[in-house]
Amino acid sequence: MKELDLLKKDWQKSATSFEQLSEKDIYAMIHKKSSSVVKWILIVSILEFVILNGIGIVLPDPYNSKYAEIHPYLNLAENLNYFIILGFIFLFFKNYKTISVLSNSKMLIQHILKTRKIVHYYIYWNIIISSYIGAFAFIDGWNNGNTKIGDIPNHGTKMIIPLVFAMLCIMLFVWAFYKMLYGNFLKKLKDNYEELQKIEF
Question: What is the pTM of this model?
Answer without folding.
Answer: 0.76
